[in-house]
């Protein structure tokens, strides 16, 4: 069991997984916002003395600053690979095989 578990996904299944993986008396840090509401095993939290803390990484001011910067400077995006759903397997294969050139793969599921 870990002293601290960080949940970067933030859905009910990962909350439960994090609580199950942390030691009694340990802490779970939830930073993911995949799901706004859900059920957590409160009895387990209480019996095992697990602390759960939510953390939000950015403020409204941070987003405003980022938008201002993007308005005057567009960063290079050559490290980003966008693929259609049918090409997802190949895109992720490139992520593994070509880490020096592909560091992020976005899968487009819409039409466009």
What does this entry look like structurally?
36% of the residues lie in helices and 26% in strands. By secondary structure, it is an alpha/beta fold. It has helices at 12-21, 42-48, 60-72, 88-97, and strands at residues 2-7, 22-30, 51-54, 80-84, 104-108. It has four helices and five strands. The longest helix is centred in the middle third of the chain and has 13 residues, at 60-72. The protein folds into two domains: 2-54, Rossmann fold, CATH 3.40.50; 76-112, no CATH class. It has a three-stranded parallel β-sheet with strand order 1-2-3.
Task: Summarize the helices and strands and which ones pair or pack.
Elements: E1 2-7, H1 12-21, E2 22-30, H2 42-48, E3 51-54, H3 60-72, E4 80-84, H4 88-97, E5 104-108
Primary descriptors:
2 domains; 26% strand; 5 strands; alpha/beta; 4 helices; three-stranded parallel sheet; 112 residues; Rossmann fold
**If helices are DSSP runs of H or I spanning 4 or more residues, what is the number of helices?**
4
Content of β-strand: 25-35%
Report the sheet with the most strands, covering strand number, pairing sense and barrel closure.
Answer: 3 strands, parallel
The helix/strand class is alpha/beta
Per CATH, the superfamily of the largest domain is NAD(P)-binding Rossmann-like Domain
- Major sheet: arrangement of strands: 1-2-3
Radius of gyration: 19 Å
According to CATH, what is the class of the largest domain?
Alpha Beta
Secondary-structure element string: EHEHEHEHE
CATH architecture of the largest domain: 3-Layer(aba) Sandwich
Number of structural units classed as domains? 2
- CATH topology-level fold name of the largest domain: Rossmann fold
Question: What is the 3D shape?
Answer: extended
Tell me how many strands there are.
5
Give the N-to-C terminal Cα separation. Answer: 45 Å
Average pLDDT, all residues: 91
Percent range for helical residues?
25-40%
Low-confidence stretches at least 5 residues in length (pLDDT < 50)? Answer: none
